[in-house]
Amino acid sequence: MDDSLERYSRQMRFYGIGEAGQQRLRDSHVTLCGCGALGTVLANALVRAGVGHLRLVDRDFIETHNLQRQVLFDEHDVAENLPKAEAAARKLSAINSSVHVEPVVTDIDRTNIMELIRDADLILDGTDNFEIRYLINDVAVKTGKPWVYGGSIGSHGQTMTILPGETPCLRCVFEAAPSPGEGGTCETAGVLSPIVNIVASFQAAEAFKILTGHKEQISRDLIYVDVWDNIQRRIKIAPLLGKVDCPCCKHRRFEWLDGQQGSQTTSLCGRNAVQVAHRTAASLNFEELARHLGQLGDVNYNRFLLKFTADGHEFTVFPDGRAIIKGTSDVDKARTLYAKYIGH
Ligand SMILES: [Zn+2]
Question: Which of 95, 204, 247, 332 could form a disulfide with 45 if both were Cys (CB 3.0 to 4.6 A apart)?
Answer without folding.
Answer: 204
